Structures are given as structure tokens and as C-alpha cells.
Amino acid sequence: MNKCVERLYNGVIKENPTLVLMLGMCPTLAVTTSAINGLGMGLTTTAVLALSNAIIASLRKIIPDKIRIPAFIVIIASFVTIMQLLLQAYIPSLYSSLGIYIPLIVVNCIILGRAESYAYKNPVLPSFFDGLGMGLGFTCSLTLIGLLREFVGGCSVFGHELGWFEPVGIFRMAPGAFFVLALLTAIQNKVKIAGTKKGKDMSKIQSGCGCDCLNCSDTGCKDRKEVSEIKEEEL
Amino acid sequence: MSTVRDLLVILISSSLVSNVVLSQFLGLCPFLGVSKKTDTALGMGTAVIFVITLSSAVAGCIYQFLLVPLNLEYLQTIVFILVIAALVQFVEMFLRKFLVGLYKSLGVYLPLITTNCAVLGIALTNVTKEYNILYGTINGFATAVGFTISIVLLASIRQKLEDNDIPEALKGMPIVLVTAGLMAIAFCGFGGLSM
Q1: A159: exposed, middle or buried (C-beta count within 10 Å: 0-12, 13-18, 19+)?
Q2: Where are the domains of chain B?
């Protein structure tokens, strides 16, 4: 049981996918116009992540190594379709406000990244909790970013109008998303620089998926990079 | 004539007004990751135009001739992602065998595009907007052109930024994101084109 709690802690705090690892930026920016949307997107992703991790872990001895990525994608896409149909049936308001970003959970690199780096190598229960932890970490940060954007951009909290100040509308629009993320990565950089000065190991903190796709590690891009490296050598 | 007009409207609105990266946030990873130099950005852009145009045509055909007649529309996500992944692999093999020059300039970027959310995003948007195959393909092409415009612009701004004195904490990603935000504001201006 200890291991499960450790996985949860790891996902929410230590390796928070958005705030530390900087994964899954597209949905993070696109759906956080309000806290409710962020929460909905986060929970949907959590469900997909936990369930697909569990299934992949249980099939890890059957899936051949060479075709594991397509196999992962089929499993993930099936769960995404299930979630999409469930949302359409029971929470249509959320379904219409998240729109195309629900099916796009398939290509969210957090999910493929976890399948590859954890679920494919570990038993079912820890994998499930690893997915749950990562998903909850994603949910927390999405809700926080949504809350911030909704508060500054609309002067409201979870849809309740406060009317304290004149809202800065641009924060709810596309440019605002970039500015909030810029702020976030700047804080991250600050923490990283301060930590390195004190001699702590800060290598887990990535300052964005931004350095260079071709020199990326620890994320879903890694395999693709290796593939392209091999081809370059062959040429 | 109305078809030509519709296509022009799609071309302009998909490439500029609702720009794929700056207003829909699709394909952010390559946008931020491969935009250090203008020539690599241009290479990435060309590869994206190539793959998205092709994949939206193929996905459109599969949807119209396979999924709709069999009442399997709900499988679209699974089918599209597999088709796109297979298509990219196939294109790669084809280029490698027959067009070595093109492969050398685009080959590195192709594997990075497979799970790019823009490619799947366009295929799904075409279905949601009920475009036919021709409209869908044009929409894919226009969107990819929009991607190329914005990635090349960002790359050239980033090259200029290199000589500037940037505060320690803003170095790297944050300043790029601020730049992207300012570009997004500029692109909001295209919203004024009423169509």
C-alpha cells in the first residue's frame, strides 16, 4: 500500500506533470479559460490515464516490444472514446465547452509518457495509482491556472461574479494563456536557479517542452528522437 | 463560383483568423521546440504542410467511404490516429526510397509529427464542421500554412532575441512564451476580417 501512496505523492507534488515536468501543454493552455473547464479536463484525463495505465500494465507481458507504441495508442484511444461518449451523454455542457480537446487527449504526451516509462515496466496496482497521481497532479494545476485566468480575466471564481475590479479580458483569450504560462515557467526557472545555487538536484524540473525536440528526454518525445537518430546514422 | 468563394474563405480563416497555434493551441510542442532557427522552422513547416494536407485527405476519404456507410462514426478517434501514424510511416518509407533529397531535408521532422495534436485535430475538425473531402483537404492545407507562418515568424524573432539582455529567470522558455503571446495579440487583429 505504501507504494501506492508514494505514487500519488509523486504525481501530485514531486513530478507534477504541468508545473514540474511541463507536459501536455496544448490542453493546459486551451481549456483553462475557467476553473470549471480546467477541472473537467483534468478529471477526464485522470480517468483515461489511470485506466489505460492499469490495462497496459496488465498486458505488459503480452504486448511485443516492437509494436508497443501502436498498442498503447489503441488502448488509450479506446478509453478516450469511452470518456467522450460518457461526457456527451451525462455532462453535455462540459462536452460542448471542451469540444475537440476531449478526443485530443489521445495525443497528450503525459499519457503515452507514463505508459512508456512506468506502466510497461510495473505491476497493475502501482501503475493504476501512478496514473491516478499524475492525473490528479494535472487536474490540480489545470484548475489552479483556470482559477487564475478566470479571476483576472473575468473577475469571477468558479462562475460566481465578484465585481471587485474591472476584469482584464485578454487573460481569458488566447494571448492570456501564453502570458500565464510564461509567468509559470519564469517562476520555475527562478526556483531552479535558486535550488542549483544551494546545491540541490533540480534536474527533474524542466523549463518547458521548449529547449529542443531533438534533444528532449524524460518525455514522450524521447522514442521518436531515437528513431530519427537511427535513421540519420543510416543515411 | 460559390465553391471558389467558400474555399477562399476557408483558406484565409484557417490560416490567419483562427491560427492553429496562436488561437487554438494545437501543435505547440514543435512550435516551441523546433523554432530556434529559421531554416529548421521552415523545414518543420514544410513537413507539416505535407503531412497535414495528405492526412486530412486520407482521413476524409476513410470517414466518408468507410465509417459513415458502416455507422462506425464513434470510432473516428481510434481510426484517425492509427491511419495518421501509418501514413507518416509510409510517407517516410516512400520518400526514403524514391525522393532521397526531400527525405534528407524533411525526414528528421516526420517522426516528430506522428503524434502531433494538430494533425489529429484537423482531421477531427473537418468531421465536426461537416466538410467534404475537397473542403477538408483545403482546410488542412490552410491550417498547416498558418502553422508555418507562425513558426517561421517566431523563429526569426527568436534569432533576434539572442543578442538581447534578458533577465535571468526569463531566459529560455518564458521569453519565448511572452513573444508567442504578443504574436497571438497581433493575430487577434485578423479577427476583424469579417467573413
Answers
A1: exposed
A2: 14-192
